[in-house]
Design goal:
Elements lengths: L1 E9 L4 H17 L3 E6 L8 E8 L2 H13 L1 H13 L2 E9 L13
Antiparallel strand pairs: 1-3, 1-4, 2-3
Helix pairs in contact: 1-3
């Protein structure tokens, strides 16, 4: 399993548009084969940085997923929405693997 982390630089005056975009992916991403952990919009601090995180089996599964997502009605609509509204200024994607497992259970005093 690998995890895709996407860092977005967004227009701070269009944060609501980014949140609409994120909610749409909240439906489309799982429907097309990735396990969405979540989209995160700015809350405090930088108002221009947002993130998305999802898990997928491997890079081959990622390539197939991306094709399905781009061909889906929901994917096409959300890509067009982002292009039209131009709230994303930059997008960086990185794939990481979990290195700290197994995790210990949280012990509360």
């Amino acid at each position: 399993m690998i995890t895709c982390f996407i860092r977005y630089e967004i227009d701070p005056f269009k944060r609501d548009k980014f949140e609409d975009y994120a909610r749409a992916w909240g439906q489309a991403i799982p429907a097309n084969g990735a396990d969405l952990i979540g989209y995160y919009a700015p809350y405090e601090g930088s108002l221009t940085t947002a993130y998305a995180v999802y898990d997928i089996e491997d890079l081959a599964a990622y390539e197939a997923y991306r094709k399905r997502l781009a061909a889906s009605d929901a994917g096409k609509a959300n890509y067009e929405f982002a292009k039209r509204e131009q709230f994303i200024k930059r997008e960086d994607r990185i794939f990481l693997k979990l290195a700290s497992a197994p995790h210990a259970k949280l012990v509360r005093p």
